[in-house]
Amino acid sequence: MSTVDWIKDLPVAHRGYHDMNKSVWENTLSAFKRAIDAGFAIECDIQLSADSVPMVFHDHDLQRLCGIAGEVRERMANELGMLSIGGTADRIPTLRKMLDLVKGQVPLVIELKGIDAEQDDGYVEAVLEVLEGYDGKVALMSFDFHLLRALKAADCPYPVGLTAEGVRQEDLANHGEAMALGLDFTSYCVAHLPNSFVEKLRHDGKPVITWTVRDEMMRAQTYKYADQMTFEGFDPRQAPAVA
Questions:
Q1: How many domains in the chain?
Q2: How many CA atoms lie within 13 A of 113 on its CB side?
Q3: SS3 state at 230
Q4: Could you give the C-alpha distances from 156 to 34, 124, 172, in angstroms and in order?
Q5: 238 in any annotated domain
Q6: DSSP state, residue 167
Q7: Is residue 210 part of a domain?
Q8: pTM greater than 0.90
Q9: If you write DSSP's letter for every residue of 56-113 in order, what string do you get?
Q10: What is the average pLDDT value for the chain, to the nearest integer?
Q11: What is the DSSP letter of 13?
Q12: Per-residue pLDDT tens digits for 187-216
């Protein structure tokens, strides 16, 4: 039985259980606390600060979430930690602060957002150092082949997965090449299901979760062709609407 089979058990709150950035914003401690209280697994994103501290933040730049110009990688962790998200009291958290909040209460699915192999040198090691000794279920994933390769080269002690999308044969072949690194699961775009790549993974016993489910049709698509969903914008505890 795969060590990542737990990823099938709970709906995964996309960037935490936010409210579509109305009052509870994505990738904030408030969104993570809300997910813990609801009993959902948490998906979050990691960017590196200028001083190589893993920060929980999705975008490469600060404009959409903080309303200011500039790249995350150009700022030090202490400076990033003072920036308001969406004008709220929430600030950009470090990965360590997030782990201190979650404390193993719900599983974590952490996505590493990379740039290129040269600029991401040391990225994987920085994340693994923060995770060392964490007592809880954790999986790491990325779109970026060079980060997946680095995770495997570092003997990552956590399940490693491919974040993926696409339906072209070229896309599916590239995904197969990534999985050949020895990856444990895939998080696939729900709009691109079904496809032969995902079908083979499930046949081989590799868990497949989807992103990002926002309505009942996407939820139904997930449970027909995959094992679990990464969702936002609704409460999965409520029964699907009856047509």
A1: 1
A2: 17
A3: strand
A4: 29, 9, 25
A5: no
A6: -
A7: yes
A8: yes
A9: E-S-SBSHHHHS--SBGGGS-HHHHTTPBSTTSS-BPPBHHHHHHHHTTSS-EEEEE-
A10: 97
A11: E
A12: 999 999 999 999 999 999 999 999 999 999
DSSP state of 23: S
SS3 214: coil
Residue 239 is assigned to a structural domain of this protein: no
Please report which helix (H) or strand (E) contains residue 41, including its range: strand 41-48
Helix or strand (DSSP H, E) at 203: helix 196-203
Asked if residue 212 has a cis previous peptide bond (ω within 30° of 0), the answer is yes
Rounded to whole angstroms, the Cα distance separating 88 from 66 reads 10
Give the integer Cα–Cα distance in Å for 202 and 209.
11
Which domain CATH number covers 114?
3.20.20.190
Range of the domain at 123: 5-231
What is the C-alpha to C-alpha distance for residues 114 and 209, in angstroms, rounded to an integer? 21
Question: Which amino acid, one-letter code, is at 202?
Answer: R
Two tokens, residue 232 = 């936002």
Say which residue the tokens 């958290």 belong to: 93
Query: 109 and 230 in contact (C-beta within 8 Å)?
Result: yes
What are the structure tokens assigned to 87, written together? 């004008």
Q: Note the pLDDT tens digit of each residue in 116-161.
A: 999 999 999 999 999 999 999 999 999 999 999 999 999 999 999 9
| 22, 233 Cβ separation under 8 angstroms | no
- The backbone torsions φ and ψ at residue 85, rounded to the nearest 5 degrees and listed phi first, read -95, 120
Q: Residue 163: inside a domain, yes or no?
A: yes
